[in-house]
From TrEMBL:
Gene source species: Amycolatopsis iheyensis
Domain of life per record: Bacteria
Protein name: LacI family transcriptional regulator
Entry keyword set: DNA-binding, Transcription, Transcription regulation
Domain HTH lacI-type positions: 4-58
Molecular function terms, GO-annotated: DNA-binding transcription factor activity; transcription cis-regulatory region binding
InterPro entries found in the cross-reference section: HTH_LacI, LacI/GalR-like_sensor, Lambda_DNA-bd_dom_sf, Peripla_BP_I
Length: 331
């Protein structure tokens, strides 16, 4: 059997050659059922598009750039690993490749953008860790370069495509659950003010307390990590004696549970703790947590960027906000 071709895929899937081409290059114009049938035929036959020929026709490299941030906490940092894996897998379905690089700060990252565009011809970029006054998005917008962000343009108008998870909705789910369980002193352990995602998660907790008529609850702001969670829990227990904790990350939640145990307070029995990110560590230790649909986020980032690259973006930038869900466990 010779090398599979566009025609052999079309025959196997019982569709036209143009439909196969559309699935590869413009999947949004094909019905989900037909798209899945064609993709199944592509996988079964082992068909690979002629990338070199496509690059000559489109003058595109099929490369997407992504900057890896400095190493963070080993627990919550796994979310970025999950995102990268899903992003790479989705991009490969459409014959794109992810090029990874590092940069110490925003200025170094924009310098890397310029170098990659000039040397490799990167088609576009996916950005993570968006924040207030983000130099990177301004730099890309000014040069009209294609990109999408995993994270909202905090404190700015929606001037570029973005995909994010509704952190406030997640902590609201956690808080509402704890209220239904009878808790009235529900503390929040989060990050210092100014973090877009951190402020968002704190807002969901505060909204949940307000809806339950519980007023302002006790909270502590610390840097992310298990030790930060320990420190925050210690201060909150001594000053307010909360019976439940909503945390901005699983790392903080693990620190809270460790401090509770050190004080003879049984997590899950004497006090409730809910984290955020639903990391594998949370699953192993039986920690309740808010789960983000990371695979969906990655797929939507690729879809939005491909739409921009094909020149099909609308007048208004595409924005997608996914809703997380609560995973309840013993702790």
């Amino acid at each position: 059997m010779g090398r599979p071709t566009l025609n052999s895929v079309a025959e196997a899937a019982a569709v036209s050659r143009q439909t196969v081409s559309n699935v590869i290059n413009s999947p949004d114009v094909v019905s989900p059922e037909t798209r899945e049938r064609v993709l199944a035929a592509i996988e079964k036959l082992g068909y690979r598009p002629n990338t070199a020929a496509r690059q000559m026709r489109t003058t595109r490299s099929q490369i997407i750039g992504l900057c890896i941030p400095p190493s963070g906490n080993g627990v919550s940092g796994v979310v970025l690993d999950q995102f990268l894996h899903s992003l790479t897998a989705t991009a490969e379905r459409f014959d794109h490749r992810i090029m990874l690089f590092t940069a110490a700060d925003d200025e170094a990252e924009t310098a890397a953008y310029a170098d990659l565009i000039a040397s490799v011809g990167v088609d576009g970029f996916v950005l993570t860790n968006t924040h207030h006054d983000d130099l990177r998005t301004r730099w890309l917008l000014e040069r009209e370069l294609p990109f999408v962000t995993f994270g909202r343009p905090w404190g700015a108008e929606d001037t570029h495509p973005w995909v994010d998870v509704d952190g406030a909705a997640g902590t609201r789910l956690a808080t509402d659950h704890l209220v239904r369980q009878g808790h009235r002193k529900i503390a929040f352990v989060g990050w210092p003010e100014g973090s877009g995602s951190g402020d968002d998660r704190r807002a969901g907790w505060a909204a949940g307390l307000a809806a339950a008529g519980l007023g302002d609850g006790p909270r502590a702001a610390v840097f992310d990590g298990v030790e930060g969670g320990r420190s925050a829990a210690g201060r909150l227990l001594e000053a307010h004696e909360p019976t439940a904790f909503v945390c901005a990350s699983d790392s903080l939640a693990l620190g809270v549970t460790a401090e509770l145990r050190d004080r003879g307070i049984r997590p899950g029995a004497d006090a409730a703790v809910i984290g955020f990110d639903d990391t594998p560590t949370a699953s192993v230790l039986g920690l309740s947590s808010v789960a983000q649909p990371i695979a969906d986020v990655a797929a939507e980032c690729v879809r939005q960027l491909r739409t921009t690259l094909r020149g099909e973006a609308g007048a208004e930038p595409a924005t997608t906000l996914f809703t997380p869900h609560l995973v309840l466990r013993t702790t």
